[in-house]
Specification:
66% helix, globular, mainly alpha
């Protein structure tokens, strides 16, 4: 019975793609507009599965972070041990993103994202059995593989949407997916409190709470595989491909991407925005929890009584950083598409430079906020620039190498995680170097902010299809008409696009 249901679902994957005829399409059947209120196949169904899949991955990926004050106390962890665990949570994703990029090119985004969610549900659930710092570090290392879902998320939208809206589509899917990083900061402490209210101890409550995202992973990974499409034609094998001549080997594809200067500039710049977001998601709760104290209190008497914030309120405030993904990343993608219409690729590059510079500048200012209300305002402003820069980055990525988007997306995505490792290492090194932890942590944030601000100048090295920041107007930055690769004799296009009634 179950095999029969599975067969029927797979068989309908293409016949349900008749919705493609209702959308304004380009020559590759990619949608030229985004209908956010629709969940019809294939374009918008794929868009929402890509978005929600990355959102849920973020929830499981960072489920430990908002619970860390309790976990630290229960497991007897030190600050360096927490820092190493946080670093491992993003370090594992670097290699995973590099690997999954070519896999998306070969297998399609649906199967890749589904597999990652189902596989990583295991270490997410096993977080409940962690007993010491070693177990925590190992578990977070494997949970970090869930971050690889970002690549199929962005690859999926690039496979479904045309060049005139692909920057916006990438930014919306990535941004609303990143929203999980803010949601989890408030969600996990709430689940923890609910479980405690049911009679569980602190030690049991945080362990049970980790099962919630694991269940989300299983449900979404299964439904995504069964009820969505890789591309406008349904199955990935049936996609309409861009004619590029002889098929290059995977080694030559990697070589082409690695030798492309633009790829490396985007790798570094994505580390300066998404890397910052991952770093802040891990560090924000502890920074806020420890960073604001009552003036008329002696911390030597009762350190907890002197804190302005509890674990729950610190998590709620920290969630504001990620919740800005609700619109900020989409704004970056929208601005990239908007200025591409008037200035071509140069317009996209200018938007990228401004948002990266804003990220560094706002981080410096936030690091020096001593009053909690001002700190919250600056945290939100800082977050808006971070998310906009991410959207602007992936407004440029689809045009670096149109034939090998998976590899480029994987490398740039890995750059975000590499950046997070560098920022976490820098922050922990500075934060642990003196006795005044809070002030040293502030110094760490300020140093990182100045590095990001300086890195914005790397945009000057970008030259994509003859267009740079101050010259050139490459029209491929808007949309392109692609030569279509012919299918072999006898190939049957398994799509409703070819089944349209006369």
């Amino acid at each position: 019975f179950f095999f029969r249901i599975f067969y029927l679902v797979q068989d309908r994957r293409s016949t349900m793609c008749s919705y493609a005829n209702e959308m304004p399409l380009d020559d590759l059947n990619k949608a030229r507009e985004i209908r956010v209120l629709s969940v019809k196949r294939p374009h918008m169904r794929g868009f929402w599965f890509a978005t929600v899949g990355f959102f849920v991955a973020f929830v499981g990926w960072f489920a430990f972070a908002p619970l860390m004050p309790t976990v630290k106390k229960q497991l007897g962890l030190t600050k360096p041990q927490i820092g190493l665990a946080n670093t491992c949570a993003v370090m594992a994703t670097i290699l995973a993103r590099v690997i999954i990029g070519p896999m998306c090119d070969k297998l399609g985004p649906r199967r890749c994202m589904s597999f990652v969610l189902l596989a990583t549900s295991i270490p997410v659930a096993l977080g409940a059995v962690v007993q010491d710092s070693t177990g925590l570090i190992i578990d977070r290392l494997f949970v970090g593989l869930a971050g690889a879902t970002f690549v199929p998320c962005q690859f999926w939208t690039m496979a479904l949407f045309s060049g005139n809206v692909v920057g916006t589509a990438n930014a919306m899917a990535g941004g609303w997916g990143n929203l999980g990083g803010g949601f989890v900061q408030a969600f996990m402490p709430l689940i923890f409190l609910i479980i405690k209210a049911c009679g569980a101890t602190d030690n049991a409550a945080w362990r049970i709470a980790l099962q919630v995202p694991a269940v989300f992973f299983l449900i979404l990974g299964t439904t995504m595989y069964l009820f969505s499409d890789d591309c406008p034609e349904g199955k990935w094998a049936n996609r309409i491909e861009v004619a590029t001549g002889e098929k290059p080997s995977m080694g030559s594809i990697f070589k082409t991407a690695i030798l492309n200067r633009n790829t490396w500039v985007l790798v570094i710049l994505y580390g300066c925005c998404f890397g910052i977001e991952l770093f802040v998601n891990n560090a924000a709760v502890m920074f806020l929890f420890n960073g604001f104290k009552k003036d008329d209190c002696n911390p030597k008497t009762d350190e907890n009584e002197c804190r302005v914030l509890t674990q729950a309120t610190a998590g709620l405030i920290a969630s504001l950083f990620g919740l800005m993904n609700l619109f900020a990343r989409a704004i970056g993608g929208y601005l990239s598409d908007k200025y591409a219409k008037t200035a071509g690729m140069a317009g996209r590059i200018r938007v990228l430079m401004i948002t990266i510079a804003g990220t560094g500048g706002m981080m410096v200012i936030f690091s020096q906020m001593r009053l909690l209300p001002l700190a919250i305002i600056m945290l939100v402003t800082f977050s808006a620039f971070v998310q906009s820069a991410e959207g602007a980055t992936f407004g440029v990525v689809p045009f670096v190498d149109a034939a090998n988007k998976g590899v480029v997306s994987g490398l740039v995505g890995a750059g975000g995680n590499a950046g997070a490792v560098i920022w976490s290492t820098t922050y922990n090194a500075i934060g642990n170097s003196g006795s005044a932890d809070v002030e040293q942590d502030r110094l760490g944030l300020m140093v990182i902010g100045f590095i990001v601000l300086g890195s914005s100048l790397l945009v000057l090295l970008c030259n994509i299809h003859g267009a740079a920041i101050f010259w050139g107007k490459d029209q491929s930055a808007q949309e392109t008409v692609h030569p279509v690769e012919e299918k072999p004799p006898g190939f049957k296009q398994d799509t409703a696009i070819e089944q349209e009634e006369p």
